[in-house]
């Protein structure tokens, strides 16, 4: 009996040590993620005034729309990135290095093929649009759109290394590389503007630097961790099919979420023209500081939940989800209050001009961000479990509601209604459902 009690006590102590270690990694990941993504978000704030002055309102608006398209096109990896993170985190929790290497190699092979196909298609479509009379993509803007889309597609396989670092719960390491990429992006963009290069080269300097840095970080990481280095012999049709199968559901989910959350610029352009996009895009970029906080806090929890779920440590998952939800919402609320109170001054100093209803836009974005912060940890729990079906139902309803409402009510003089509609939909439709499914036993 004493031996049994001793063994049980030892097992409990080991579990507590694992939980403490997982919590430390999670906190380090959140802090490290804040550093990397913070500078990544600062980069547009530094270059946007110079870009607006260099490109002009029309081309700047076209560029913003192209960037919005890449945000909505996050699903173009067929969900493999999200599927990979879920499966790598589970394999890491099980200590299965061979499976991790097989997953990584199969992901590289699949995403490289996808990137080549999408790049070819984007080139043909954009060139075709540039030749159509009355097309929204005027011929002089075709290079701008092409560069933005092609660099995005080229980054699809390159971004696998970030999933690997996150699965290993090395968010701080990924953040260091993001810092380097942001610094390089800022420097190259400003140098290109100073040299009066063509606008498409300026955009290439800005958007191509992160892709180049991902390639460098990939070579460095697999040199440091040779046990994870993918080889051609590690590519597995079975692993690829498994990634695509789970990825297909993540793909549909990503499509729904991206469309629901990133349609604002397109709706404004449809209802009010490209110039109105600029009126909304600048305060929205400032408001994206709150979105950064949500990503920084939530994304490391995805990998940590996956590893904990593989070890059946469900109690830690539930406790941590509630804590992160509340603390994240409080942090986002504090930032939101500052942005609403001082947003006019910040935008005036930053862009040297003000925009229509910018304070109201910031207020609506703050409310939306608070609701998203409350929801984010529960989304991460469901993603870590690959529990996608309930999310698909919720986001289908969310997309339908927001699309109809925004197309109906958003005008050039009321662009702030777009984030307000998203906030209402998120609070009424998404938050309660995600909480229920994530927290039930």
Automatic annotation (TrEMBL):
Pfam families: Polysacc_synt
Keyword Transmembrane helix recorded: yes
Highest taxon of source: Bacteria
Keyword vocabulary terms for this entry: Cell membrane, Membrane, Transmembrane, Transmembrane helix
GO cellular component entries: plasma membrane
Chief site of localization: membrane
Keyword Hydrolase: no
Cell compartments where the protein resides: Cell membrane
Membrane spanning residue stretches: 26-48, 60-80, 108-129, 141-160, 172-193, 199-222, 243-261, 281-303, 324-350, 362-380, 392-410, 416-438
UniProt topology in membrane: Multi-pass membrane protein
Protein name as annotated: Polysaccharide biosynthesis protein
Species lineage: Bacteria, Pseudomonadati, Pseudomonadota, Alphaproteobacteria, Hyphomicrobiales
